[in-house]
Amino acid sequence: MQYHYLLSGLDELELGQKSRLSFSELRQLLEEQMSEKDFALIELLEKKNDDAQLMSMMEDDAVQDRFHETNLSEDDFRTQLLYEQGAKCRNKFLRAWFEFNLNLNNVLAAEVCQKHGYDVAQSVVGDNEVAQALRKNGVGRQQNLAVLLPELKEIVAIAEISDLLSREKHIDALRWQWIEQATLFKYFTVDNVLAYYLQASILHRWDDLSREQGEQIFRSLLADLKKDVKF
Question: What backbone torsions phi and psi does residue 67 show, to the nearest 5 degrees?
Answer without folding.
Answer: -60, -45
